[in-house]
Amino acid sequence: MGNRLTQIATRTGDDGSTGLGDGSRVRKDHLRVHALGDVDELNSQLGVLLAEALPSDVRELLVVVQHELFNLGGELSMPGHELLATAAVAHLDEALAHYNTSLPRLKEFILPAGNRAAALAHVARTVARRAERAVVALGAAEPVRDTPRHYLNRLSDLLFVLARVLNRANLDGRSGDDVYWNSERLRRDAAADGAEPQ
């Protein structure tokens, strides 16, 4: 593993290259650097979400996810190394199953909206999808384990579910719900039931 940071402004990247964790250097537009950057952005976005009022169980889960994402980034920065445990994917599967049980079935697409915490979870979800796409692109060019890709796929699903959970958490004093896409089908169904669509 490369040396830990002792200074930030090294000027070694002025030539458009950056150092990886194994000491090698690549261009800053390398597929590996794109994947690393997207994972870093995702972790930063979770940091913003963690600045919100959250249910304690959701907070504890997201703190664990931040550490796992750091491991994922470390693995991407060192070609051939394994840092993200495969058990981390199973952990996300368990969280998905747990939080899904408390949610009503979706009858329509929902918008990435609601209270602030839920909206931030949706932003993190979209960044997770982009990070996943970057890891897929890297894997098409170089060997990459399946675990990072699986983890990001599962995490984006979990963040969608958590956004729904956070809209219902009532931490802002206003009990919320999903914000539904006002589709033609939803209007027809509401009209048939004699109700206004949400």
From TrEMBL:
Domain Cobalamin adenosyltransferase-like: 8-165
Pfam families documented for this protein: Cob_adeno_trans (PF01923)
Keyword entries, A-Z: ATP-binding, Cobalamin biosynthesis, Nucleotide-binding, Transferase
EC number(s) recorded for this UniProt protein: 2.5.1.-
Gene Ontology BP term (one): cobalamin biosynthetic process
Gene3D superfamilies attached to this UniProt entry: Cobalamin adenosyltransferase-like
Nucleotide-binding keyword on record: yes
GO MF assignments: ATP binding; corrinoid adenosyltransferase activity
Tagged with keyword Flavoprotein: no
Principal EC category: transferase
TM spans (from-to): none
Reaction(s) catalysed by this chain's protein: 2 cob(II)alamin + AH2 + 2 ATP = 2 adenosylcob(III)alamin + 2 triphosphate + A + 2 H(+)
Superkingdom as given in the UniProt entry: Bacteria
Region entry Disordered, spans: 1-25
Membership in a protein family: Belongs to the Cob(I)alamin adenosyltransferase family.
Subunit note: Homotrimer.
Protein's recorded name: Cobalamin adenosyltransferase
